[in-house]
Design goal:
EC 1.14.13.81; iron; 7 strands; two-stranded parallel ribbon; magnesium-protoporphyrin IX monomethyl ester (oxidative) cyclase activity; mainly alpha; binds fe (ii) ion; NADP; about 65% helix; three-stranded mixed β-sheet; metal-binding
């Protein structure tokens, strides 16, 4: 729904699909009772770093933003707005979760309450900054409306920790790789937001390290077969979602001079490598079947979108989609069953 009464156009809803950023809620009591003693020093150090607030003056719209963006062609503009909308929703969903955690944990778990309060501050800055960028293109998200009306997915605390760890680290790699690429190829830097990504991604990296500390504070999350199955599940889910969404938005990556496929692979490789510091295992992304199967899933995803937009009868669409869903499920299951890399063994070797 778009309200057109005032400028800029305020969007009160965003598309919710399997691949769109989710809003999470969790068992706050269980998190309040979590024993974080083994990682307390790490968490206190993170609090001190966030209080130092190195990015205090970073999210400021300098004079580079004060210009007209009318010269950006329609195709690029549409792809960029879509990128901004997805990024803003994702940053904002982090804010909502962290804010709620800090509120519910206040007086019960002071260290975690403070950690989440400071992370919520960062995510509010990120979401607000992107939303202001959207207003340069005459559109903005009604974040208050989204808070009240978006569907919230319940995740157990362990799932939140696995999922948010990965989303922070993949966010870090997405921002830094795009920043480095645009530093080398400034002709594609069509809007100054990208220049902010270097310091910005340090916030995401720090958030990821905080979730690493939470994960390592819970031995059940990295010891034993159950932990391994969950870790593998979250790695594959996050990487598959990334592969599908990046290919869906190939126009945007083309506009900034990136090859969507190469960028996606690099982000996945780097995030997988980083995850070895927190997760009990990582995926064997160098297996000859890994990326080709993900590519096939992406192509089927595109095909499903075409079918959904076609004028065919609903039952026909359903049957056409069914075979594609079955094939994608088989590919994902195949990838899930591939032998993973034992990160705990690597940890022992490194020490
Ligand atoms: Fe963020
Ligand atoms: Fe973050």
């Amino acid at each position: 729904m778009v309200s057109t009464a005032s400028k800029p156009v305020v969007k009160t809803t965003t598309e919710e699909t399997l691949l769109s950023p989710r809003f999470y809620t969790t068992d706050f009591d269980a998190i309040a009772k979590m024993d974080i003693s083994s990682q307390e020093a790490e968490l206190k150090a993170a609090i001190a770093e966030m209080k130092a607030d190195y990015n205090r003056n970073h999210f400021v719209r300098d004079e580079e933003f004060e210009q007209s963006w009318d010269s950006i062609d329609e195709k690029t503009r549409r792809a960029f707005i879509d990128f901004l909308e997805r990024s803003c929703t994702s940053e904002f969903s982090g804010f909502i979760l962290f804010k709620e955690l800090s509120r519910k944990l206040k007086g019960r778990n002071p260290i975690l309450a403070e950690v989440f309060h400071l992370m919520a501050r960062d995510e509010a800055r990120h979401a607000g900054f992107i939303n202001k960028a959207m207003s340069d293109f005459n559109i903005s998200l009604d974040l208050g409306y989204l808070t009240k009306n978006r569907t919230y997915t319940f995740f157990k605390p362990e799932w939140v920790i696995y999922a948010v760890y990965l989303s922070e680290k993949i966010g870090y790699w997405r921002y830094i790789l795009m920043y480095r690429h645009l530093q080398k190829n400034p002709e594609y830097q069509f809007y100054p937001l990208f220049k902010k990504f270097e310091n910005w991604c340090q916030d995401e990296n720090r958030h990821g390290d905080i979730f690493k500390a939470l994960l390592r504070s819970q031995p059940s999350m990295w010891k034993g077969w159950k932990a391994k199955l969950w870790a593998k599940f979250f790695l594959l889910s996050v990487f598959a979602t990334h592969a599908l969404t990046v290919r869906e938005r190939a126009d945007f990556y083309e506009a900034v001079g990136l090859d969507a496929e190469e960028y996606d692979r690099e982000v996945i490789r780097k995030t997988n490598e980083t995850s070895a510091r927190a997760f009990p295992l990582t995926l064997n992304v160098e297996h000859p079947q890994f990326f080709p199967r993900l590519d096939r899933c992406s192509k089927r995803n595109e095909k499903m979108k075409e079918i959904a937009q076609s004028s065919k009868l609903k039952p026909v669409k359903f049957l056409q989609k069914l075979s594609l869903i079955a094939a994608t499920s088989f590919d994902l299951l195949y990838l899930y069953c591939l032998k993973s890399v034992d990160a705990e063994a690597l940890r022992v070797t490194v020490r």
